[in-house]
Each structure stands twice: as structure tokens, then as C-alpha cells.
Amino acid sequence: MKVLVTGGVRSGKSRHAESLLSSCTTVTYVAPGPSDDTDPDWVARIAAHRVRRPSSWVTLETSDLSDALAVDGPVLVDCLGTWLTAVLDAHSLWDAPSDSVTAVVDGLLDEVVAVLATRGDVVLVTNEVGLGVIPSHRSGRLFRDLLGLVNQRLATACDEVHLVVAGRVLRL
Predict the structure, then answer these.
(1) Which among 49, 91, 137, 162 is annotated as catalytic?
(2) Which of 41, 53, 140, 169 is least surrounded by CB atoms within 10 angstroms?
(3) Contacts of 171 (CB under 8 A, 6+ apart)
(4) Tens digits of per-residue pLDDT, 82-135?
(5) Is the pTM of this model over 0.85?
(6) How far is the CA of 112 from the CAs of 40, 97, 109, in angstroms?
């Protein structure tokens, strides 16, 4: 089963995603975001996630999502927003024309969708975007639009989409 778990920041997405694979002995937990950040809040958030996971789960810190999804066994990716940020950073795309940025992201999504088609149990966590404030800066609008694209593309490759709001889960 492939599941996309979406919702707002601090909605309970990660906890729900982890619960979907709680019966699995070994899970590859893909963390595509920064791990050595100097922001103490980010470091604390990563530590809390690590403590919550079973010791038998393997953590893979990488932004190469298609390779990470090719591993054997169940996979949990948390989260696609940090993956997208890593992609934009790695390719220096924050100031590139939006068509160029979209082309790069689309190409990477093509690879990810192709790997997902061959997979068994995968849970992808993402942030739901576009329900609130319109970002005043171009980078915020670019990120919002791209993550919306990422979410739509990967939702079509999944069997289910779960929306988490205030810790409650709605299966779409």
C-alpha cells in the first residue's frame, strides 16, 4: 500500500504516518531534509522524531528520493517539503525562472513516480499548502506552487491520501 499523508504543520502527520507502519519490524525512514542545521528548534524536532521511532527502523538521510525509495522493504519519507527545499538548494533554483524550476522538479518526480510504481509499502509525508496566507515573497510563492505540484503528482501514484487535521485523520 502506498499512502500520501498530508496536513498542516504540527497537525500530527508524522505520528500518523509512523503508525501506518508500526506493525513492520524494519522500516527505512527517509529524512530528506537538513540534519546538521544550526537552528536549535530544528535540531530538537529531529531528535523528537528519532526518539519516537523504533530502534529497528533504519534512518536514511538523503535528498535522492528515487534511490531511497528503491530499497527493499517498507519505506517512510518524512517529508516532501524538506525534500523540495533540498532540491531547490542543491540545484540553485530559488531565483531561476519558474518554468525552469518546474522542469527540474517534474523530471525528478518522473523518476520518483516510476520507482513508486514498483514498490510495496511506502508512506510519504507532506505539508498541505495553499490553504492560508499568500506568501509575499517570490520564493514563498514558488515553494507553495511547487509543493502543490509535488503533492498532486505523488497523490496520483499512491493508493490512498490521508489528510491530518488537529491529530484527526480523514481518508480521501
Answers:
(1) 49
(2) 41
(3) 160, 161, 162, 163
(4) 999 999 999 999 999 999 999 999 999 999 999 999 999 999 999 998 887 889
(5) yes
(6) 31, 23, 5
